[in-house]
Amino acid sequence: MRKHLEIVAPSSGAPPVWAALRNEAEHYAREEASLASLLNAVILRHDSLADALSYQLARKLADQELRAMSLREIAEEAYQADSRLIDMAEADLQAVFERDPACKGYVQPFLYFKGFLALQTHRVSHWLWTHSREAMAFYLQSRTSELFQVDIHPAAPIGRGVFIDHGTGIVIGETASVGDDVSMLHGVTLGGTGAERGDRHPKIGKGVLLGAGAKVLGNITVGDYAKVASGSVVLKPVPPHCTAAGVPARLFNCPTCPEPARTMDHTLASEIYEDYVI
User: Does 10 fall in a domain?
Assistant: First the structure.
């Protein structure tokens, strides 16, 4: 009988994510011989999270026009130039494990989860964008959209510890921004309201929860630790610690739960602020 592998989320006294990822990969390689070669190639033969992640992204993104070796060199260049990219990747991986009840460990999102892989590709494309390499940044954006059904403009900055659940149908516009510790589900749009130029997309604060199918449109702010309910359309600013729900959205409870993005609490209170339609 196979023993269940207990994965413990890293804390100040626990092993780092990379050590936990390798430990889990070694376990699965012993338990499932058919996957041993994959686990060795993607995780176990590498000396660091940066090495493994650059290999994994290149393996996923490569096509006839741009081979895996070239893509890996691009990712490695970004990681060597800015170590924060790996710090953010580690925080993102930990966020998936902590917030997704379907996630059994670190190997699962590292190998398979579209949201995590799309976000890491975007981090590289954003680095390229900030270093005036727009053509390659757009190439990675296009491949991310084709492979993972996640379309994030390379100019958009995204904070650390971000969890993109499922990923399919995510759209984030050029002048949008996403803060630390945000969680968003499939079908979220951070878009504009028309064909206007300039600063035209939403600014999402720290710790915000964006439910499935939520649409936040225009140059507006969703405040820290706010929550946008599934299927809502938000056209005006949302104050911090409030829940916006409906079409058009209105405030349901202020304050909402303390850290909605971490608890993934999609419930609504019964109290409605009728005079505050947003």
Answer: no
